[in-house]
Structures are given as structure tokens and as C-alpha cells.
Design a protein that fits this description.
29% strand, 3 helices, Alpha-Beta Plaits, single chain, alpha+beta
Length: 101
């Protein structure tokens, strides 16, 4: 299993647009085959920064999503709203002290 973390920084006047849009599409990623769930975090001090945190069966499952029609619908919609280049990491857990994750 891998965890995918994606940092997105939005223009100040677009963060609410993103959050509203996210509420309409969050199930697409969360229910995509090979995805075991997703969270969206928002920075407390800089609310224009959000991070998606998702668990995937493997890199092939993540790649299948990234090449999907669904991703092709989402990314072009939000890309113009970015204030900085997105950053992404695929990681595996070295230690997990959370009982339920």
C-alpha cells in the first residue's frame, strides 16, 4: 500500500471555489478502484493551502486514476486556480502510531 500526499496552493479568491467543487467530486477519488480512502487537510495558518492524503493499493492503481477520464475532468478545472506549482509525494509508512489508520 502507498500513501499519496498532494499539496495544492490556491489563489486567495479561489479557495472557496475549490472547496465547493471538491465537495461535488470527492467521492470520485474516494471510490476509485484501488483507492482505500482520501482526506483533505487545510492549513490552519494559510487556508489557501490544502493537501490531499489518500491510500492506494499500489502505484499502478494510482497511475490508473491519474490517467482516468475522471482525473482528466478534475485537474483542468482546478489548475487555473493554483497560486503555486502543486507538489506530490508517494510514500510508504515507516512507522504508524495511529491505531485506526
Amino acid at each position: 500500500m502507498i500513501t499519496r500526499i498532494v499539496k495544492l496552493e490556491f489563489q486567495e479568491d479561489r479557495i472557496e471555489d475549490f472547496l465547493s467543487f471538491f465537495d461535488t467530486i470527492k467521492h470520485i477519488v474516494n471510490e476509485f478502484p484501488g483507492c482505500f480512502g482520501m482526506k483533505l487537510y487545510q492549513d490552519i495558518d494559510r487556508p489557501t493551502i490544502v493537501m490531499t492524503y489518500s491510500h492506494w493499493d499500489n502505484q499502478a492503481s494510482l497511475d490508473k486514476y491519474r490517467n482516468s477520464e475522471q482525473f482528466g475532468m478534475i485537474w483542468p478545472k482546478i489548475k487555473p486556480w493554483f497560486d503555486a506549482k502543486p507538489e506530490a509525494w508517494s510514500v510508504s509508512a515507516y512507522f504508524n502510531g495511529f491505531e485506526l489508520e
